[in-house]
Amino acid sequence: MISIRASFQQDRIRIESFYAHNQYWKPLSEDDIQFFAEKDGGICGALRLCREHGVLVLRGMRIASEQQRKGIGRLLLQKAVEAIHGEVCYCIPHRHLAAFYQEAGFAEANAAAAPTFLADRLVKYREDLGLDVILMRRPSEKAPRPRLENAVA
User: Fold this and answer.
1) SS3 string of 22-79?
2) Tens digits of per-residue pLDDT, 95-129?
3) Is 0.70 surpassed by the pTM of this model?
4) Ramachandran sector of residue 40 (left: φ over 0; alpha: ψ -120 to 50; beta: rest)
5) Class for domain 2-138, per CATH?
């Protein structure tokens, strides 16, 4: 059975070890909100929400190779979306995962309209690392609803 939960301080070393084993080397921050999937006492998936320059960014989605295509990523992403609380959120996934993120409300974003640090990161990932990635944005759900003045019931 898979369990999905937010991490606590005591989980940090296990999550860092999982990330290292799954080729994710970005340092974790105390301010990150981390979620992980656990099966039989071991971590089989993780992701984190980071606040960078005042912008919420979903980073580090990793699923253990033997656990991929079993719905774990979808469950992790669902937990993250709940934690976003309708706030704008960005991510930079591999292009072939666009439909997966679209299911959670993300859409491909124009880098020219994105925060500069994300546009720069996108260029670095593509040009320096040769990754086929895209910038995606999940819009705010806090947009004001139109007022229906003079509506006839």
Assistant:
1) CCCCCCCCCCCEEEEEEECCEEEEEEEEEEECCEEEEEEEEECHHHCCCCHHHHHHHH
2) 999 999 999 999 999 999 999 999 999 999 999 99
3) yes
4) left
5) alpha beta
